[in-house]
Amino acid sequence: MTPQILAALAAIEREHAVRVLFAAESGSRAWGFASPDSDYDVRFVYVHARDWYLRLGEPRDVIEQMLPDDLDVSGWDLRKALRLFARSNIALYEWLGSPIVYREDPAFAAPARALIARHFQPAAALHHYLGTARTTFHEHLSSEIVRLKKVFYFLRPILACRWIEQARTQPPTTFADLVAADWVDADERAAIAELQHRKQFASEADREALNPALAQWMRDQLEHYTRIGPSLARRVDGNLDELDRLMIALCDR
Q1: How far is it, in rounded angstroms, from Cα 128 to Cα 120?
Q2: Distance CA 23, CA 95 (A)
Q3: pLDDT tens per residue across span 209-251
Q4: Residue 130's closest CA among 25, 24, 232?
Q5: Cα(188)–Cα(13) distance, rounded to whole angstroms?
Q6: Nearest CA to 112 among 253, 252, 246?
Q7: Considering only CA atoms, which of 17, 10, 74 is closest in space to residue 51?
Q8: How far is CA 60 from the centre of its chain?
Q9: Residue 65 to residue 80: CA distance in whole angstroms
Q10: pLDDT of amino acid 230
């Protein structure tokens, strides 16, 4: 799919008169547990010529396209992206940590990655991941028969919560790195490995019985992170000046 994705990005640049600074896979393919029939979710950051920003109104700052072959391509304008970056936007931080990168301007990606630690807010990030895990559990995992895919959509954000609890940093995008962390015990790793083996051959819609012990573990994790979340709040050292300088430098290129 890479040639098709690169062609789609080039077409977007021509059609919208923008320059793509960064493009990466997001979702299950970036996380490392895609099913054989998973979609491609490409996310990107783009910049206009400087004069585009010198206007009183603010035109649309998102580009979205659904293309053939289950290709979902969506991007944010640089100003929008940096405003969200300053507010510890987890989606953008995950894009920057994706192991599947299609386009990367080092003048954007390297400084942005270096600034994540300055703007990261542990309590807000844990709230984000915990909300995802809680919604997945109550909407998809509260019955006896569940979609195996949804088990991983719970495991990843709950292990991200544990990463934040232990390290106070942005969790890695890849599921394997979350599982390999020192604070995941051997029994948990073995159970996850067994689930991964089954999922390797499962389609998006495959269902199976949910192990009662796993279901109880999930409930315990939700209760724990609900209780400790507020204790992770801290003062954020980042400021807008450094992001302003990054935006000006990229608009001037």
Answers
A1: 12
A2: 8
A3: 889 999 999 999 999 999 988 888 777 666 789 999 999 999 8
A4: 232
A5: 45
A6: 246
A7: 17
A8: 23
A9: 18
A10: 83
pLDDT bracket for residue 202 (50, 70, 90): low
DSSP-derived 3-state class of residue 171: coil
Quickly count: other Cβ atoms within 10 Å of residue 166's Cβ.
13
End-to-end CA distance of the chain: 30
Strand partners, 42: 25, 73
Supply the DSSP string of 53-112, one letter for each residue.
Answer: GSSSS----EEEEEETTTEEEEEEEHHHHHHHHHTT-HHHHHHHT-S-EEEE-HHHHHHH
Question: Each residue of 44-81: b (16+ CB within 10 Å) or e?
Answer: bbbbbeeeebeeeeeeeeebeeeeeeebebebbbbbbb
Q: Which residue has the higher pLDDT, 22 or 252?
A: 22
pLDDT in tens, 134-168: 999 999 998 889 988 899 999 999 999 999 999 99
The SS3 assignment for 50 reads: helix
Compute CA distances 75 → 15, 59, 157, 167, whole Å: 14, 14, 23, 30
Eight-class DSSP state of 210: P
233, 243, 96, 126: CA torsion to nearest 10: 10
Residue 224 bridge partners (DSSP): none
Torsion of CA 228, 234, 240, 246, to 10 degrees: -70
